[in-house]
Amino acid sequence: MNSGAEAVETAIKASRKWGYKIKGIPEGKAEILTFSGNFHGRTTTIVSFSDDAQYRDGFGPFTPGFKILPYGDLSAIEKAIGPNTAAVLVEPIQGESGIVLPPAGYLRGIEELCRRNRVLFVCDEIQAGLGRTGKLFAFQHEGVRPDVVIVGKALGGGFYPISGILADDDVMQVFHPGDHGSTFGGNPMACAVAREALKVLVEEKMIENSAVEGEYFLARLRTLRSRHIKEVRGKGLWIGSSWSPRRAAREGSAKRSRRRGSSARRPTSTRSGSPLPS
Description:
By secondary structure, this protein is an alpha/beta fold. It has helices at 4-23, 44-47, 53-56, 74-80, 106-117, 169-172, 188-203, 206-221, 245-251, 253-259; strands spanning 31-35, 66-69, 85-90, 120-124, 148-151, 164-167, 229-235, 238-243, 269-272. The longest helix is centred in the first third of the chain and has 20 residues, at 4-23.
């Protein structure tokens, strides 16, 4: 695929078709569980399960088949999963919301619930993946193995758009010739760039570097003493901070951060990250 949103759409199609053809969900009844504060893209289907009013304003009617649950709450997932649940779509760390980390064990809990209920565990690594958090994929911090992994952004090395999904045959083989496609998806230039980007990540030890420098950077940031800084958080070199609402409003800190390339969707949060860890 090309954009991250296109890869998310591909994962949605794969999950639904798997649900109908493999799990046996009645046609038109498949559900996908998603989470508050999510950001997976801006297509009409994807904003259908966003809880950000700006992303939805003026774009309805929206695509059905999604439930939005509180991020970080395993009990909400357990209650929501049913016989028509095809997939759980989750970001291992929510980037657009300001580098929001779930509670420890959250991804392991999702994996266990998905295995128990025969539901696909779909991990959106478009922002968190490929080295930013000090692991190749952010889900590796919890030792889990999703059924579907969505990749993009850093796959193009900050130079060229390319995205895709990673899955085993039992998911991928639900697609047959003509079921899905993309005009420029998998084009030679994009694939050449992706190969080099991955090669650089490994050969220049950027993933390991992200872990080491991220630990140092986070430790230094946490030494800052200011009544305006509420929290500093992150993994590797993917770091976010929260500011007091009064300070953010008075100083326009979020607006200044966006001008400097360190943005977050929440007005009291900032975040930093790079196309390739450096």
